[in-house]
Amino acid sequence: MKANQPTVDGVTKIAQLFPSIRKIKNKSLREKVAAVWSEAITTGCGGKGWTFDELRAVKFTLLAGDIK
C-alpha cells in the first residue's frame, strides 16, 4: 500500500496496534497516518516487514527495563 492510497481497512488494522489513531478527527489525515504505518510495517526491517505480534513485543523504551 502506498502512503497516498489509504483504505478504511488499513485504518481498522492499524488501530488494532495504535487505538489512538481513531482520535484523529480528520478522516483524510487519519487514513494517511494509517497508510504510512501500514507501509512502514510491511517494508521495514530491511524489506522483511514486521508482524503485529513482533510490534506488540517492542518495548516502549529501552531505558525502562523489563515492562510487563
Overview of this protein structure:
There is one protein chain. The protein is an all-alpha fold and 68 residues long. The chain has helices at 8-17, 27-43, 52-57. The chain has one domain. The chain is globular and about 35 Å long.
SSE blueprint:
Layout: H1 8-17, H2 27-43, H3 52-57
Could you spell the SSE succession in H and E letters?
A: HHH
Instruction: Give the structural class.
Output: mainly alpha
What overall form do the CA principal axes indicate? globular
Radius of gyration, CA atoms, in whole angstroms: 13 Å
Strand fraction band? under 5%
What descriptive keywords fit this protein?
68 residues, 49% helix, disordered N terminus, single chain, mainly alpha
What would you say about this model in short?
With 68 residues, the protein is mainly alpha-helical. It has helices spanning 8-17, 27-43, 52-57.
